[in-house]
Amino acid sequence: PVTNPFQSQENVTIEYVSAVTVSPDKLTIVSGSSNGVQLWDSLGNLIGEPFEYPANPLSVAISRDGEYIVTGDNDFNVRLWDRQGNLIGKQAFEGHKDIVSSVAISSDGQYIVSGSNDGTLRLWRAGNWQNWLKIGCDRLRYHPILNEAENLKRNKVAKGARETCEMHVWK
Questions:
Q1: What is the β-pairing status of strands 68-73 and 28-33?
Q2: What's the rounded Cα separation, in Å, for the pair 30 and 108?
Q3: How far apart are CA 128 and CA 82, in angstroms?
Q4: Is the separation of the CB atoms in 111 and 103 below 8 Å?
């Protein structure tokens, strides 16, 4: 008989598990369940706390480097997370008209593919936070809010955005 170390967790009650995946290095297991999204080591020990999850995860995928997790949800959305459970981007990838039953990440980590019970597949650009920051900064590079001295004096957010772009993108 095979023992199941995942059932031996104290104080962990899981009503159902809807999806699991294993990282390419076989060191991390990601589960989507009634508890949200959880990471486990290969011995069945929880890694960190469950992600604070706004919907029920029905599908999960992990990037080749193990740093990013993608989820497909019963609220028709796709979400991208870091492995600490922080949502990357403030908004989910929206566009499906029914539950997202499958997700995958390309081997280079640049694309997410999702499948839905609405009969569609969608391709999303994933990238990493540096790519997202570069896109955002480049779009704002010549915008008056980041380039007029008066705006930067009055608006702390604009000043912070300009400083972040200068430090990480426009060096």
A1: unpaired
A2: 19
A3: 10
A4: no
Taking only the tens place, the pLDDT of each residue in 55-64 is 889 999 999 9
- Decide: 146 and 159 in contact? Cβ < 8 Å: no
Taking alpha carbons only, the member of 102, 82, 91 closest to residue 32 is: 102
What does R_g of the chain's alpha carbons equal in angstroms? Answer: 19
- pLDDT tens column, 136-165: 787 788 888 888 888 788 888 888 888 888
Q: Residue type at 126?
A: A
Sheet of 57-62: strand order equals: 57-62, 68-73, 78-82
Single pTM value for the model: 0.69
* Cα-based torsion angle of the residue sequence 44, 64, 38, 32 in order, rounded to the nearest 10 degrees: -110
